[in-house]
Design goal:
255 residues; alpha/beta; 12% strand
Length: 255
């Protein structure tokens, strides 16, 4: 029994081989026009399926991560702030720190690239097959409080603990609500020497005791973060002020 192309496509979709189904006609045409033989075309069909599955896997990992934008170190302008720790950042981009279950703290002024670098590293990790979670600090605290109220705290903590890389962005950008310091410490303590965490903050470590609201808590927490950690300081001019100035200049020119 010989199937038509339409029937073959339908059968491939029924077998969940959508990658092969999408390119079947093009591969069949190549064989019919003697551009390639059957085995070569079949090899390409198999690769089409593998490529489609890999692409969908990356999409699922990206969606799970919580990232909402594709930041890239290739697009980072190192010349704008030449004092940024370029070499340590590029070393982190190898992701060996994730394999070693080490942590990283990015401390510095607003707008100096901390979040950009953290998101770029998270995207690199997603694309290389790591399980990644990205959360802005205030959102993470809200998620923890909501999970507690709904009786789903154990489930959320399992997700946070299970991520090979957890990024907590903009810690202390907003004032932490009561008890948030303990919640945050529980998350970080549970990941110590088990998985990697990146934290970005515009507040120096000397301010953390006051901001977390528990002086006793801060010492052990920082000790664990820095035991196998990388402390990178981001100084210089604000990217956001630069972009705002550029927009004003364009509007002035247009007028």
């Amino acid at each position: 029994m010989t199937m038509s192309l339409t029937e073959l496509e339908r059968s491939l979709r029924a077998l969940r081989l959508s990658g092969m189904s999408a390119t079947l006609q093009a591969r069949a045409l190549a064989v019919a026009s003697h551009e390639m033989d059957f085995l070569e075309a079949f090899s390409y069909l198999i690769q089409d399926e593998l490529d489609r599955r890999h692409s969908r896997l990356l999409e699922r990992r990206y969606t799970f991560s919580g990232l909402t934008e594709h930041k890239d170190l290739k697009a980072f302008d190192w010349t704008y702030n030449p004092t940024l720790p370029k070499r340590p950042i590029l070393e982190l981009a190898t992701l060996t720190f994730v394999d070693a279950r080490e942590d990283a703290l990015f401390i510095g002024k607003p707008g100096t690239g901390k979040s950009h670098v953290a998101k770029a590293l998270a995207l690199l990790a997603v694309n290389r097959g790591y399980k990644v979670l990205y959360r802005e600090a205030h959102q993470l605290i809200e998620d923890l409080h909501e999970a507690r109220a709904l009786g789903e705290l154990r489930k959320l903590r399992a997700q946070l603990t299970g991520a090979q890389l957890l990024v907590i962005d903009d810690l202390f950008l907003r004032k932490l609500p009561g008890g948030a310091g303990d919640e945050l410490a529980d998350v970080l303590m549970s990941r110590y020497e088990k998985a990697s965490t990146i934290i970005t903050s515009n507040r120096g470590l000397e301010d953390w005791a006051t901001l977390l609201g528990d002086v006793v808590l801060v010492g052990p927490l920082l000790d664990r973060l820095m035991h196998h950690g990388h402390l990178l300081k981001f100084d210089g001019k604000s990217w956001r002020l630069k972009e705002a100035a550029a927009r004003v200049a364009m509007q002035t020119t247009a007028n």
